[in-house]
Amino acid sequence: DDSIRQFILENTEISGQHSLTPEVKLRLLTPNCRFWRERPELWPFRDPYWAIYWPGGQALSRYLLDNPDECKGKRVLDVGSGCGASAIASRLSGAAHVTANDIDTVAAVVTHMNSELNSLDPPACVSENMIGSQIDAFDLILLGDMFYDEVLGASLHRWLDSCVKRHGTKVLIGDPGRAQLEGHSIRGLLQQLAQYELPEAVKEENYGLTCTRVWLYCP
Length: 219
Prior knowledge:
Elements: H1 2-11, E1 13-15, E2 26-28, H2 55-66, E3 75-79, H3 85-92, E4 97-101, H4 105-117, E5 124-126, E6 140-144, H5 150-167, E7 170-175, H6 179-182, E8 190-197, H7 200-205, E9 211-217
Parallel strand pairs: 3-4, 3-6, 4-5, 6-7
Antiparallel strand pairs: 1-2, 7-9, 8-9
């Protein structure tokens, strides 16, 4: 972990001020960082999804910070947690217990570091794939930017349906309107709760996407 932490310190920048949640500090890959321009084969880990603050995660985090009752006193699971922003927003909003789940073990390290940046104890971090597993300990599941692949989307739909129907778990999804979500069968079961215009810098980084949204899953 020490070598990974050192690598993250040297190759990311404390950022977030140009996001939808400027009050949350995050270590991210920015244009000022070496690997923004460096040949990708020199990157020593798997693709660094944890180094980008994706627009769906920004929407979820903003929504939770603006609506703390969604989290207050609750047990929250952030699936595909990446940089940990939504887990951090949950903690800031008064969640009783937060678990950040990402299959990339580096994401757990950066989530700890980002929690420290925001003067928070880190959430519990789980690196096993929880999609499809039996869970009963959570009141709220968060999914930011997870509907980017049809096969994954189908797995998520089956799992979320089970979580809601068996345990009454509430599910919030953050997504900027990617084609994979808009064309998925789950789309007809989503109720829009919020829409945010993306900051200019985020629009530029996301190929012209202009808005991002939070949806409630209602099977």
